[in-house]
Design goal:
The structure holds two protein chains of two kinds.
Chain A (H helix, E strand, L loop, with lengths): L2 E10 L2 E11 L4 E5 L6 H9 L6 E6 L2 E2 L10 E4 L11 H11 L4 H14 L15 H13 L5 E5 L7 H16 L4 E6 L2 H7 L2 E6 L2 E7 H6 L4 H6 L6 E7 L3 E4 L3 E4 L10 E7 L13 E14 L2 E7 L4 E7 L9 E7 L4 E3 L5 E3 L7 H4 L1
Parallel strand pairs in A: 3-8, 3-9, 6-7, 7-8
Antiparallel strand pairs in A: 1-2, 1-4, 4-5, 9-10, 11-12, 11-14, 12-13, 14-19, 15-16, 15-18, 16-17, 19-20
Helix pairs in contact in A: 2-3, 2-4
Chain B lengths: L9 H26 L1 E3 L5 E3 L3 H8 L1 H31 L5 H15 L2 H11 L6 H8 L10 H29 L3 H9 L4 H29 L3 H6 L11 H11 L3 H28 L4
Antiparallel strand pairs in B: 1-2
Chain lengths: 366, 287
């Protein structure tokens, strides 16, 4: 069963929640919806599920118009940010509940519950009540309930947000494995670019109710269609610098000049925006085309074994994503190196003209 | 190895201890003291041990009151809890009408107890009361002042009118606290309205209902003012509940010793039953 949205629009109290969404998800695909809070991810999912009816547009399941069909008559399941289970039923009964409602025999129910519990590693807890479990186990129970149904469409609305870091990574990997042999459409909403990258499949970038870009995850990451997509699909957000290109050189903010490289010399003269990913900046020169810029340290934000180094000069601010722990003093003067072949070039209005080029070393650094 | 520790922290609980001592322990001990003595006047008093307790427990009038009291509190819970939940389920969830229904529900709770008694005393009169007159007009021979059953039903109805709102308000707040995602999940599961109530709403309401049941039990078990104003405990002794029997004994006949023993027993019964409710309702959580 494929899912298609055709010009789906939802207006609530005169406000566009979803603006002309067009999407097609293939059976057996894993699809990530990436966007900030309030970008319309949940609204879009509710429209896909049939929990809400779009103001205009159509929702098709395998070519059949399902727009007005209520959620009860569709075969879908959904996993929420909160851990939603029946509070006074045991884990076993919780997982079995969709099958019981479908009037399956107790024997089939038992087999399937055992199978799915095994897969999600909650077999030892089957006789417990959901509230006697840890958050991760509760969410696994909710997932088991969603998976046992063999639904045509499974929606995950930021299911891992309320879990700790370690569990999140663990479940993320399991999710991919769980869906590898299934023929259902999985849709997964998240605010985190890293989660989208880890989950793979396709990624759809949502912003203010509009679909900005959709495509295979890696492709979407490497060639963001505009500034918004580039900003949303990178953590920390991509650094943007205004600049212009003349016949033989590139100028950033009227102050920094460097000669046109082979990657950039196809561009005509004019004003542009340049995007450079924080992970591509470095503190040491690495490539022959590196551009040296003198900056001052604003703050070094250390997260795990990585450092987000915020720097600025008189004209712009940038963030460097460095591996390892680096400590700096505020206002310390340092030099950073911008590999110019890694620049993404956008038009003044934000549209992508040229994605960063991927040299051989990308196979190691991504 | 023993960790060195300081006992100074006890000073921090001292204010609470003093407060509780003066508000609860000292008065209670005074009553215990009375209940063990036969007091004629300030200087003439004899220690009688558990004599008064034995007498109270064997007093058939008080036993009747106790039975009456249990039937009354039981009826109150059986009517008010389901009715309150029902009202809460039917209330509009948001918007203007939600506010209006909340206000209307809160009104009975704002009426002083003796005013409630007076309202129903007049309301139920067969000659000038709307309720009593209307019942008689449609052929029901209703007179709360003469017929014990009528008196009983009126006291019960009065309590239901007065306090169902409390259960409804508690339940309403409990229902509002259930995330919308539960209802969505239920509709995705194709659960019926009954299943939603049985497996989502009722379990989620449990903690507020526990408070509701405890409050309504304790309150109804100690009911005094309303029946006192409405029927004065009559006709006969048919609406004489425990606290009224106690008041008659302590203030009417000035039998301080037996009244003290009665108070202690009364207190212990409430404590015991409340504890039973509490354990029963929290126990099913971790069976």
């Amino acid at each position: 069963m494929s899912l298609t949205l055709e010009n789906v629009t939802q207006i609530v109290d005169g406000q566009y929640y979803i603006n002309k969404a067009n999407l097609t998800f293939e059976p057996g695909s894993f699809n990530v919806l990436l966007g900030r809070t309030l970008s319309g991810k949940t609204s879009l999912m509710r429209l896909m599920a049939g929990l809400e009816k779009p103001t205009s547009g159509r929702v098709l399941m395998h070519g059949i118009d399902m727009t007005g069909v209520s959620v009860q008559k569709r075969n879908i399941s959904m996993v929420y940010q909160q851990f939603i289970n029946y509070p006074n039923m045991s884990v076993y009964d919780n997982i079995a509940s969709p099958l019981r409602l479908a009037k399956a025999s107790e024997k089939t129910i038992k087999e399937k519950v055992m199978e799915i519990a095994e897969m999600l590693r909650i077999t030892p807890f089957l006789s417990r009540l959901p509230l006697e479990l840890s958050g991760g186990q509760q969410q696994r129970t909710a997932m088991a309930r969603a998976l046992i149904k063999d639904a045509d469409l499974i929606l995950f609305d930021e299911p891992l947000v309320n879990l700790d870091y370690k569990l999140r990574e663990e479940l993320r990997i399991e999710m991919r494995e769980l869906f590898a042999q299934r023929n259902t459409i999985a849709v997964y909403a998240t605010t985190e670019p890293n989660e989208a990258l880890a989950l793979g499949g396709t990624t759809t970038i949502l912003h203010e109710g509009q679909i900005i870009q959709t495509g295979p995850t890696a492709e979407t990451y490497h060639s963001p269609c505009n500034v918004i997509a580039a900003t949303l699909f990178n953590e920390p957000p991509i650094n943007m610098i205004k600049g212009h290109i003349t016949e033989n050189e590139v100028t950033f903010d009227n102050t920094i000049h460097f000669p046109l490289t082979s990657e950039l010399n196809t561009l005509s003269a004019g004003e542009y925006q340049f995007g450079i990913r924080p992970s591509h900046l470095s503190l040491l020169p690495k490539n022959d085309d590196d551009l040296e810029i003198s900056v001052q340290v604003e703050v070094a934000e250390i997260s795990g074994s990585e450092t987000f180094l915020h720097v600025r000069n008189a004209h712009f601010q940038m963030v460097l994503h460095l591996s390892g722990v680096h400590s700096y003093h505020v206002d310390e003067k340092i030099k950073i190196y911008v590999p110019t072949h890694k620049l993404n070039v956008f038009e003044k209005d934000g549209k992508l003209i040229q994605a960063s080029s991927r040299r051989i070393e990308d196979h190691f650094h991504g | 190895m023993n960790k060195p520790h300081s006992n100074k922290a006890w000073f921090l609980v001292l204010p609470v201890f003093i407060l509780v001592a003066f508000s609860a322990i000292v008065p209670l001990m005074t009553v215990v003291n009375y209940s063990l003595q036969d007091i004629f006047d300030v200087s003439t008093r004899y220690f009688v041990g558990t004599e008064w307790y034995r007498e109270i427990l064997n007093d058939s009038r008080l036993q009747d009151s106790l039975v009456r009291q249990f039937i009354f509190s039981g009826s109150v819970l059986l009517i008010e809890i389901p009715l309150g939940i029902g009202v809460a389920l039917m209330m509009p969830k948001s918007g203007k009408w939600s506010v209006i229904s909340l206000l209307v529900l809160a009104l009975p709770l704002l009426v002083p107890l003796n005013v409630v008694g007076t309202i129903w005393q007049i309301f139920g009169r067969a000659d000038i009361g709307l309720f009593g007159w209307a019942l008689n007009a449609i052929g029901i021979d209703y007179n709360y002042a003469a017929n014990p059953i009528d008196a009983w039903l009126t006291v019960l109805l009065m309590d239901v009118w007065h306090w169902t709102s409390l259960v409804a308000l508690l339940s309403f707040s409990g229902l509002r606290a259930i995330p919308d995602a539960y209802y969505q999940a239920a509709s995705i599961d194709r659960a019926s309205a009954w299943a939603v109530f049985r497996y989502i709403q009722l379990p989620k309401l449990k903690s507020v209902l526990l408070i509701g049941v405890l409050l309504r039990f304790m309150d109804s078990f100690m009911i005094y003012t309303e029946p006192f104003v409405l029927t004065g405990g009559g006709p006969g002794n048919s609406t004489t509940f425990l606290s009224q029997a106690l008041t008659k004994m302590a203030v009417g006949q000035f039998d301080i010793g037996p009244a003290g023993a009665f108070s202690i027993i009364y207190f212990l019964i409430i404590l015991l039953v409340s504890w039973l409710f509490y354990t029963a309702m929290t126990h099913s959580d971790n069976k």
